[in-house]
Write a structure and sequence with these properties.
Layout lengths: L2 H25 L2 H27 L4
Helix pairs in contact: 1-2
Organism: Sphingobium fuliginis (strain ATCC 27551)
Protein name: CsbD family protein
InterPro entries: YjbJ_sf
Length: about 60
């Protein structure tokens, strides 16, 4: 995957995670809140991965 692919997936995971986290808080569901936070963290990791690929020219 290239830099842009990672960044697009990261944005999707961050958005979905934020929605899950907000829904979990609204429903008082700590498991859903935790799932949302985990998905946002995954998105952040994908974003960093994309940035590294961009800096290294997609060689990794």
């Amino acid at each position: 995957m290239g830099e842009m692919t990672d960044k697009v997936k990261a944005a999707g995971n961050k958005a979905a995670g934020a929605i899950k986290e907000a829904a979990g808080r609204n429903q008082r569901d700590p498991d859903l809140v935790a799932e949302g936070k985990a998905q946002k963290a995954k998105g952040t990791a994908q974003d960093v991965k994309g940035s590294v690929k961009g800096a290294l020219g997609d060689k990794i």
